[in-house]
Every structure is written in C-alpha cells, then in structure tokens.
Amino acid sequence: MSDFEARLVAHVAGTQFEDLDTAAVEACKNFVLDSFGVGLSGSRMGMAPRLLRRMRDWGAAPQNAGATAWGHGTRLPVPAAAMLNAFQIHNQEFDCVHEPAVVHPMAVILSALFADAEARRASGRDLLLSVVLAVDVATVLGMSASTPMRFFRPGTAGCIGAAAGLARLRGYDEDGIREAMSIAYSQTGGTMQAHTEGAAVLPMQVAFNARNAITAVDMVADGLCGPRDFLSGQFGYFSIMESAGNAPDAFALLGREWQISRVSHKPFPTGRAAHGTLDGLLQLRSVHGFAPEDIARVEVQAPPLVRRLVGRPPKAQMTPGYAKLCIGYVAATLLQRGDVRVEDFDPAALQDPARLQLAQRITMVAGSVDDPNALAPQQVSVFLQDGREHSLELPEILGSPERPLTREQQLRKFHRCVASARHPLPATAADAIVRQVESLESLDNVAYLSSLLCSGAAHELA
C-alpha cells in the first residue's frame, strides 16, 4: 500500500468526533439539510417513481428493515434506497459542490451513509463524523487532479469517499477501511460523455456509485479483498481515472482543513459552472435596471472548465439535462423571470420561443485563467441595444464559502424544495426536519428523520 492509500486510511480510522471544529460540524449539518431538500424535490422528476418501481421488482425490504426512499413512503434494501435517493439529490443539478475538487460531495455520500445509518439505527454524531471523513476523501481525490475530467468525478471520487465513510460508520479497522475503498474503486464508473450530451443517465452515474459504495462495504464484511495500490498502482485510480499532479498539496490538507467547510451551496438548479453568469447578471441588473428587451448580447469570460461544462449552445427540443447545462438557456431564464427554479426545466418552459431567442444572444469566451479545474474567476458583460456596456468581474460566486448564503437564504431554498416534491411535505414536518438537523449531534437514532422525510406521502403501491 502506497503513501496515498495509507494516509487516507489513517485519516479515516484515526479521526474522532472531538477532532472536528465547530465550523465543520455546522457546515455538515447545513449541507445535510440542503441535500434532504434537493433530494425531496428530486422526487418530482418522472424517472424517480419509475426507478422506485424497478427497485421493487429487484426486491423489497422486510418490514422494519432496509432504508427509506425519500418522499415516497416506501422502504427498500439499503443499496436500493441509497441508489434512489442519490438519483433524487442530483437529478436537478441543485446539490452542493466542492469547487476546488469539482465534486458534488453529498449526492453519493449522504445517500449511502444515511441509508446505512438508518438501517443500523446509528446516532447523528456518528453520521456527522462519517460524512465529514467521506467528504475529505472524495474532495482530496478531486483536488489531486491536474488534468481535465474524463470520468465523472462526483461519481468516482464520491464512491471511494462514501465507502471510506461507511467503513468508519460500521466500525471497521484500518484493513477494513482500506478494503472498502479498494473494492469501491474496483466497481466505480461513469464518464463525462453523459455530461457532454446532457444525457438522462447523468444523475444515474451518481446513483450507481451510491449503490456501489454500499456493496463494497458489504463485501468487506464477507471477506472480499481488493488491490492494495488502488490509487497509485499501475492501473489504479491515479492512472486510469484521474491524474495526480496536485496530489501532494491536496493530501497535505488531511487533518489540517475539513473540506466540508469548503463546500458551496447552489442557489439555482443548474450546473455550478453557470452560477457565475447568473450571479453577475443579478448584480448588474440590480444596479443598472435593464430589461431583457434592452439586451443586444451577453458575453461571459470564463475558465476552460466552465466553458466545457456549460458553454453549449441552446437549441430546439433541448432535454432538461441539456438545458440545465446550457448557459444561454439558464441566463435567459434568469433575465426573463428574475430567478431560476426547478419548474423552468419542465417541457413547457423549454419550448418558450422568447426564452430561446434571448438564449441565442448569450455566449462564453475564454478568460484569463487556463487552470483546467477552475470555476472562477468569471467576467460578465452586458451589451445593451443603445450601445452601453456593463461588466462585472466575479472572483468568487454566490454560495461559495467566501460569499455564503445567509441562513435565511438556506432555509428559503429548503422550504421551496420540499414544497416542490412529488408529495410536498407539510410545513410542520419541514420545520421538524430543520430542528432535528440543527441538533443532529444529539440525535440518538437518525431513523426518526427518515419518517419525517416521507411525511408527505402515503405508502406507494404503484
């Protein structure tokens, strides 16, 4: 086992809850709540009930066993529940992101860890520690990369991180933690091709990896062994899936900086790479007061990763997955409506001719930064029909640790999300979830939270 593998194992095995600082614990609770909200909202998407039916075809959980499918009032085997909930967290591009790592850390990690914690009646304190450690592993792997993504990093790094967190949650020793990450690597997958095409399978790449993380830790319990050099070997993660040019600096952060505190909220249900444009347009419009019809064109200067992720052109008959990652469409939506909401990617909105026409006038060009993994800085320039030009440089983007959402903004997002669920939660249940998460470290059994996450749904049989 090389130094990289050994350092991850030692970090996961040796860290205690008392080692976490207050900022890390509070950040973890904030992003648990955020992920519950976007996961419940994700139940509104048509694939969610179809996936639930498929899960039942594959096998049901015995009564009082398994884990909960959020928002559906149904219990499933733990790997199936993790898979469905991960899909719902990521299927609207509304989940949080660690920008330096380019990883959505909670989609795979929280869905897998919460399902396992629920089934095992784990405490909130144990859940928080395992989530923080899993996020450290996933994001350190992401920050190690020095070349553009080929594999879908939120899935691949998320799977290895989730397996590490699950192993710690179950009380595995160092050998068990190493085997869990190794076996997770042996089955992780998902490429950037789905992202490039905006294909509907993209959030399923997160879902598959949540299931795979559960499978990995189960196989450890059954005695399965993986390759020792799963990161640094000839065919390890840093050879096949990612580069490791930045690994020395990334691994040096272990035990020094809790990466959960570096995670960004998403104010809008679209790729984080689009948030700079939306943030800039909101600020410029608040100062200069222009209307959509006043705009001749919008130009965004952005790093290579931003252009690669969301610089695609608008087109007729866009799928929701494509539109969420199309800078023209999301920016035109903001300019028309003053906001971007989950309903803006429903079929009727996608066919709005005025929105599509405005979208054609919004483009991205190369900025001054050539870092292949940078999401900032960005510059937004609005050129008006009367010849005036307004520009704004954004070194940091709304929702980042440097420009965080206020608590009021976080709660507004959560309540809007749960109200948009397939079975909207009653206000009393939503408020109860907020209170329980705020005191999560004092909760003896996280299973109580699962009942609240389904309080809007009757037991679904179809």
UniProtKB/TrEMBL annotation:
Residues 7-243 form the MmgE/PrpD N-terminal domain. Pfam families: MmgE_PrpD_C, MmgE_PrpD_N. Residues 268-422 form the MmgE/PrpD C-terminal domain. InterPro entries: MmgE/PrpD_sf, MmgE/PrpD_sf_1, MmgE/PrpD_sf_2, MmgE_PrpD, MmgE_PrpD_C, MmgE_PrpD_N. PANTHER family: 2-METHYLCITRATE DEHYDRATASE, 2-METHYLCITRATE DEHYDRATASE-RELATED. Belongs to the PrpD family. This is MmgE/PrpD family protein. The lineage of its organism: Bacteria, Pseudomonadati, Pseudomonadota, Gammaproteobacteria, Cellvibrionales.
